[in-house]
Specification:
The protein contains five helices and 44 strands. It is mainly beta. The chain has a 22-stranded antiparallel beta barrel.
Length: 767
């Protein structure tokens, strides 16, 4: 890294470390009984494949527990970003769960692409979801969500250079207990959550079942016919059994299912210029101006072209055996299937100019073996083997409904003065991507002294991708002429092979029982792939018989220094980290002037910043949580990002530089049998760039989101009633933007996050 950036990072780290003695000197001695009542609870995480105290793990981790998720009305993965620094997430459809961590995008495309791999790992009970179409998890009866920031390639695999979201579900219990929760809210919200667990054979076999059903009307009104968009309609559940024939052997079996038929967000037309979209409207006597309104939640679109179908199911087994020597063997075997289809009206008008349908049928098998050494020795390690076999079958149709006529050719007489697109014309493409990946890994910890611990992690990965792809081009009425050069591509079969070594090395130091520091350097990778989007002649290198569609892996070297402190007699917890990420060959989406999306290996990119998380129990009744994240992620020299634009020094797309949040929660005795609780959460996100060119027209504005909760709970925990709001101030938050300058139709459009929503939750717990 350059001298200036090293100096800047060193100043940041020094500033963070100077906070420790200042805060420590302010700590006061409390009465022992009061200390115990006010002390924050110890948090156990499995970020390193075994249960450990959060404060002793040399990682930047945010943790959300079940109570925090219930009280905060956190329903799905997208909701967790409000309390995690340097994390941004947007979900506009099953295909587009866009994640950005520390300023770096997980997906280089920002749109659906079966040929890419996510850079963020999603794990549920130790099982990876290798495709982004499986990311939008329902957080129903979850024990804990851990968000690990920074490369995690040693223990979690090659496509975790941004980090990992590690979800742990509630396991079956030998005690009979359960929960019934019902949510009712505006826009017709109706949500039911059921959970039941208990023994089938006392102390040997326990089972649990979790079911959910969610329905909600849309908050976007279609003035073309009165229909609604951004509805919710999903249901599913999870059944689990835990078999413990001895105190050494545990076998967990889990089966899950999800069915989603929600209607996605619709694009709102905001601007236009003369182009294909205008010509498509002309025969009907309409202009784009007829469909532009001031109401941000009003659209004019063809409702028949918007739909979603998502069906996921899976079966996984985890076997754990504890040897007398203290070693533990673990086997995790899983089969996952997640199929998704989405339809979109691409012209944002009620006239059927251009629409799309996209499908990915995904099937994966994973097997992982682990051996964990005893924890009571100076030398401790986790080692293992991992295997993945994933097949993604993809189909995409981008078709004209009514046809587009009178497109000027610009040719002199007697050549044709115009060309036309017949109904049903447009690029159709599809194919299959088969990924086979295997790895061996080890993570070793050694106590040099009681105060200093060193760690080293290694993972060797071998990846093979076999691709099959075809395209029917965008034919016009002129023989041999294709619109936007979307030409025919005969079926092509290509293979991509790669192998690499990920590693991490560092030191973890104990200042005292309440303060820990760590420093580490890691190297991680995200595997290469293929651009599974409509392809122009230029984007494939000019030869449809030998299309150039592949891109190489990207690499990152991460430098991180962290501090973890429990202060004020364990009433305050302060965790901080400073980081510097050095990316090379970063996978980046570029958009040509004709709107062609493709993925290239850009130049190097760097991200540097800080994170701090604070939890403070002010009194027995009052608790405060806060987080601050800053990530300055920019491209280095990047002259070829576009035909005429230079992206050198531009901000990477998909994330804000600042991500800040604060929550205040209060709980007190109301009567002999009832307690009162209340909370308010605030989160801030800075401006976000939508593409590498940093166009002002597609820049997403800042957001200020306020959520609140107030309720009563019986002192025995049986009954609870809570009133809640999301987006209390009715903030207008942009989540997606497209500009006429880079649109195939020369249309600009925008999507917005939900307006103010509110409701009431009724919960009955029995145990």
């Amino acid at each position: 890294m350059g001298h200036f950036k090293k100096h800047k990072l060193a100043k940041t780290i020094t500033s963070l470390l100077t906070l420790l003695p200042i805060v420590s000197l302010a700590a006061e001695t409390q009465d022992s009984e009061q200390q115990e009542q006010l002390a924050l609870e110890k948090i156990i995480v499995t970020a390193q494949k075994r249960g450990e105290n959060l404060q002793e793990v040399p990682l930047a981790i945010s943790v959300l527990g079940s109570k925090q998720m219930d009280r905060g009305n956190i329903q799905n993965i997208q909701d967790i970003q409000q309390s995690v620094p340097n994390l941004s997430m947007v979900t506009t459809s099953p295909f587009t769960t866009t994640i950005n961590m520390r300023g770096i995008p997980s997906s280089p495309n920002g749109v659906f692409n079966s040929g890419t791999s996510p850079g963020m790992g999603m794990y549920v009970d130790g099982v990876v979801y290798s495709r982004a179409t499986g990311f939008n998890q329902e957080l129903s009866n979850i024990e804990r969500v851990e968000v690990l920031r920074g490369p995690q390639g040693t223990l979690f695999g090659q496509n975790t250079n941004l980090g990992v979201i590690n979800i742990t579900t509630k396991k079956p219990s030998d005690m009979v207990e359960g929960k019934v929760k019902v949510d009712l809210g505006n826009y017709g919200l109706r949500k039911t959550n059921l959970y039941l667990t208990g023994p089938l054979i006392e102390n040997v076999l326990a089972a649990s079942i979790s079911l959910f059903d969610v329905s909600r009307d849309g908050y976007v009104e279609n003035s073309a016919d009165g229909s609604e968009f951004s509805t919710q309609d999903r249901h599913g559940g999870r059944a689990q059994v835990r078999y413990t024939p001895t105190d050494k052997l545990t076998l967990d079996i889990s089966a899950e299912y999800l069915k989603d038929k929600s209607i996605p967000l619709a694009n709102k037309l905001t601007d236009y210029e003369l182009g294909l979209g205008y010509l498509g409207l002309y025969p009907s006597g309409m202009t784009p101006e007829d469909f532009i309104t001031d109401d941000i939640h009003e659209v004019f679109v063809n409702p028949e072209r918007y739909f979603v179908s998502r069906e996921n199911w899976g079966l996984d087994t985890t076997l754990s055996y504890q040897f007398d020597s203290g070693f533990e063997f673990k086997s995790i075997t899983a089969k996952k299937v997640y199929d998704s289809t989405i339809g979109t009206d691409m012209d944002s008008t009620p006239v059927d100019i251009v629409f799309s349908t996209e499908t990915e049928n995904n099937e994966q098998f994973t097997q992982e073996f682990q051996i964990l050494s005893p924890t009571d020795q100076s030398l401790r390690y986790v080692a293992g083997f991992f295997y993945l076999d994933n097949e993604a079958v993809n189909d995409q149709n981008f078709l004209s409904g009514t046809g587009i006529y009178g497109i000027p050719t610009g040719l002199p007489e007697p050549y044709p003065q115009s060309l036309n697109l017949q109904p049903g014309s447009g690029p159709i493409n599809g194919g299959t991507l088969q990924t086979k990946s295997s790895a061996i890994f080890a993570n070793v910890n050694y106590d040099f002294t009681q105060a200093i611990n060193g760690f080293l992690g290694l993972r060797y990965s071998d990846v093979e991708k076999q691709m099959s792809f075809y395209q029917r081009g965008w034919e016009t009425s002129l023989p041999g002429v294709y619109l936007l050069n979307y030409i025919d591509i005969p079926t092509t079969n290509q293979t991509l092979k790669d192998d690499f070594l990920s590693w991490t090395v560092g030191l973890n130091g104990t200042i005292n029982d309440n303060n820990h520091v760590y420093g580490k350097v890691s190297k991680g990778y995200k595997e290469g792939g293929y651009s599974f989007r409509p392809q122009s002649l230029q984007s494939i290198g000019g030869n449809p018989l030998n299309p150039q569609m592949s891109f190489d892996r990207e690499a990152v070297v991460s430098y991180e220094l962290g501090l973890k402190s429990d202060l004020f007699d364990h009433r305050m917890r302060l965790n901080m980290a400073a980081f510097y990420l050095d990316y090379s060959d970063i996978q980046t989406r570029v958009i040509d002037d004709n709107g062609t999306n493709r993925v290239v290996n850009g130049p190097s990119a760097t991200s540097q910043g800080i994170e701090a998380e604070l939890s403070y129990r002010v009194t027995k009744q009052l608790a405060v949580n806060a987080a601050i994240g800053y990530a300055d992620a920019t491209f280095d020299e990047f002259e070829n990002c576009h035909a005429i634009d230079d992206c050198t020094g531009n901000q990477l797309p998909g994330a804000a530089k600042w991500t800040n949040s604060v929550s205040v929660n209060y709980e007190t005795t109301l009567t002999e049998n009832w307690d009162l609780f209340a909370g308010v959460d605030y989160s801030y996100r800075g401006k976000v760039q939508s593409d590498a060119r940093n166009l002002s027209a597609t820049e997403l504005g800042t957001s200020n989101l306020v959520n609140s909760q107030i309720g009563i709970v019986s002192t025995d925990g049986t009954w609870e009633v809570m009133l809640w709001t999301k987006n209390l101030l009715d903030e207008e938050i942009e989540v997606s933007k497209a500009d006429k300058a880079t649109s195939e139709l020369s249309f600009s459009d925008v999507m917005y996050a939900p307006p103010r929503t509110y409701g009431v939750s009724f919960t009955y717990n029995f145990f």
